Amino acid sequence: MIARIAVLGGDGIGPEVVREGAAVLLAVAAKGGHRFELTEALVGGAAIDSTGQPLPEATLALCRSSDAILFGAIGGPKWGPSAPVRPEQGLLALRRELGLFANLRPVTVNPRLAAASPLKAELLAGVDLLVVRELTGGIYFGEKTRTATSASDLCSYSAGEIERVVRVAGKLALGRRKKITSVDKANVLETSRLWREVAERVVKAEFPDCQLEHQLVDSCAMQLVRRPADFDVLVTENMFGDILTDEASVLAGSIGLLPSASLGAGGNGLYEPIHGSAPDIAGRGIANPYGTIMSVAMLLRHSLGLEAEAAAVERAVNAAVAECVLTPDLGGTATTGEAGAAVVRALERASPTP
Ligand code: IPM
Ligand code: MG
Known about the structure:
Layout: E1 2-10, H1 14-32, E2 35-40, H2 45-51, H3 57-64, E3 68-73, H4 87-97, E4 102-108, H5 121-124, E5 128-134, E6 144-146, E7 151-153, H6 159-174, E8 179-184, H7 190-206, E9 211-216, H8 217-226, E10 233-236, H9 238-252, E11 261-263, E12 269-271, H10 290-302, H11 307-322, H12 336-349
Parallel strand pairs: 1-2, 1-3, 3-12, 5-10, 8-9, 8-10
Antiparallel strand pairs: 4-5, 4-11, 6-7, 11-12
Helix pairs in contact: 1-10, 1-12, 6-7, 8-9, 10-11, 11-12
The structure holds 3-isopropylmalic acid (IPM) and magnesium ion.
Magnesium ion is lined by residues 242, 246.
């Protein structure tokens, strides 16, 4: 197949991990006889420095005309929270402009890496959960006001915005353990009361085979570390999903391991590791590329429909971990490049994908 893939490294360790992701894409193409056309573009702080805009027109146009987007990370101390133009605006604009309303963040625990997690190994056995985070609504995108002494951020959701993301969660739950946990703060927030009503209605009507439970976000944050193996699919609003997925990454052992897919109504999705730009380790070649490479697997699966190739990439990451090619966040000494190369090697020696 021929596919056009936009490659947006961004800031900090973003370009370093995306380089390894791109190498894996090219290895998949070579092995399967595909042609992937990779085109790099600026986003975030790097784009602000060169164009004044966190999401230049040319980058947005490239993303619109691509089959998928591989994204690194954005942000850094140079463009702090009080800067007039901030890197984060680039990512938020990209999500909104492309209508990427559903953010899939799977969390599994590789038993070989259980020791990298601060949680007890017995709590981690069998953890296999998927957070479906609403990505283009809520407090992130509501009206903002600011005076010298007061500030406000509006959180609003329409029933339609909730329906479509719950539907994504429902469809994914059907291919898993068919258990959906909808997370809200319905004891306090009006948006959460609407969320709960809509989730109840959509699951009852469209996914009668799925079991639905509701959890308040504060209690859910606790259950995620107390009994994480009990969760299957979680569906929640934008900010709760942001917070809960950083927390859930602790289960896997390192935030550097976790991938994500941001999907909309079309096939054109954005794939990024959930970690940030990690300015403290940028440029040292020690960032963990496995979260980005697992995001490449999601790209192959969700945007290109290449399930066999996606599974092969996931197996190759597991093989690299089994060989103990581990970056410092996982207790090893491998460089970003060595970790990426181990995955490419494992892919190349695996039997051909059908
Ligand atoms: C994430 C990040 C972003 C978010 C930031 C960089 C805007 O934390 O993708 O989880 O809050 O959505
Ligand atoms: Mg986050």
